[in-house]
Amino acid sequence: MKMVVEYDKNIEKKIKLKEAEFNGYYKIKLIFSDGTEQIVDFGPFLEKSQHPSIRKYLELNRFKSFKVVDGNLNWNDYDLIFPIADLYEGRI
User: Fold this and answer.
1) What letter would DSSP give residue 15?
2) Domains of the chain in sequence order
3) What is the tens place of the pLDDT at every residue in 17-35?
4) Cβ neighbours, 10 Å, residue 73
């Protein structure tokens, strides 16, 4: 059996992160390529995690060292990264 799926190319938009700025405590203001803005609070995620490689970002200076790389929010060469779709929705 052969299945053929057709996609509307207009639906397939690629959203990328354009800008990110520290917004206090563990919050980051994110601006996406379509103009959407979100403030995402990473505090609960970091505090709930038991993994040392994630918990190290509770150190505020380390948390603030994020960069936008290739349209993604990135810490320390992909040491910590989140799906764009989740960030776009304002959740992690």
Assistant:
1) -
2) 17-88 (3.30.2020.10)
3) 999 999 999 999 999 999 9
4) 21
User: Strand 37-41 vs strand 67-69: parallel, antiparallel, or unpaired?
Assistant: unpaired
Residue closest to 87 by CA, chosen among 67, 75, 72, 70: 72
Chain segment 36-59, per-residue pLDDT in tens: 999 999 999 999 999 999 999 999
**Do 75 and 66 contact (CB within 8 A), yes or no?**
yes
Tell me the whole-structure pTM to 2 decimals.
Answer: 0.82
Q: In sequence order, what are the residues at sequence separation of 6 or more whose Cβ sits closer than 8 angstroms to the Cβ of residue 76?
A: 65
Size of the chain in residues: 92
Please enumerate in sequence order all residues whose Cβ is within 8 A of that of 70, keeping only pairs 6 or more positions apart, or say none.
16
